Amino acid sequence: ENLDHSAHAIWAHLKPILEEFVPNSVSSKVDTVHFWSDGPSSQYKNRFNFYYLTELLPILCPSIKRSTWNFSAAGHGKGAMDGVGGALKRMADTLVARGIDIIDMDSFIKNLKENGTTINLYKIGHADIENFKEKPKSIPRIPNMMQQHQIIWNASDKKRITMQNLSCFSCIQQDVCSHFMTKKRHVLINNNNSKCKLKYPDRHSSNSLSDAESDSDNSPFNTNKNITLNDYVVIKLTGKKSVRFYVGVIISQDAFDEYTIKFMRKCGKGKFTFPEKDDVAEVSSSDIVDVLSQPSLNKREQYVFNENLEQYNLN
Q1: Residues near 162 by Cβ (< 8 Å), separated by ≥ 6?
Q2: What's the average model confidence in pLDDT over 145-150?
Q3: Residues 223, 169 contacting (CB under 8 angstroms)
Q4: CA 137, CA 258: separation in Å to the nearest integer?
Q5: Which helix (H) or strand (E) holds 36?
Q6: Contact 235, 260 (CB under 8 A)
Q7: How many C-beta neighbours within 10 Å does residue 206 have?
Q8: Mean pLDDT of 249-268
Q9: Using the 8-state DSSP alphabet, how is residue 145 labeled?
Q10: pTM of structure
Q11: What is the pairing mode between strands 66-71 and 32-37?
């Protein structure tokens, strides 16, 4: 019933599963958890998900000392979870064909349980998802994140994550993987002293956590502009010594006004193409300076915009 697929919604769904399988005790023998998923930037492969990994996992599962999040290769994301979902949908289809009405989440869970499903079902309501919708004032951006396939977190360095482009479970504690000879990158993902607020009672403490500040009201971007998927936009990227402008198309958006952009390459006055190798990155709403009209496609398969873009000195 709630179509939110952002990082905070992911963790709202993970909470009951972690509570079910990881005993809530520092003396628990469960000290490692591995997550597997595909890699959509709007859901799993983004800095907000990694922030929740560093902030919420120690709260929900205090015995966990290390964790990895592993991303399947593009186009290879089907796994056991898809089979479980498919089995539930087929069972629901069978019940509907028998004349049983399934009109909402409650009737879905009720009818499947009454008909003998052995799959554990949890109800995640709108309020449960909203309870996780907190973020700190700033989370550092992670360059080249789309090329990474394993995120490693250790309780000994709670504020950082380690990234590498291939998954290896034997070299979690090492800076260089001896099996694939890949060098790992260490990223400070959580440099905020305030903690993420959980609006539900903590399983092991009645003390509430300090609220995380939101910077949504401080964005210089004109929020009156209605930005939607597939919009073509002008993006401003600020370097150490220069500011550059680019044109791209929005391919996804999360709940925190973070956008995934597929960048274009300038090939003439007002003309652009997409490079053979996709150039994709996350930007915030403050980086979007203009929303363009839909371009036309000329005979050379170049995208032509009606706007005068010379003012931006586009790259």
Answers
A1: 151, 152, 153, 154, 184, 185, 186, 187
A2: 84
A3: no
A4: 14
A5: strand 32-37
A6: no
A7: 6
A8: 83
A9: G
A10: 0.62
A11: parallel
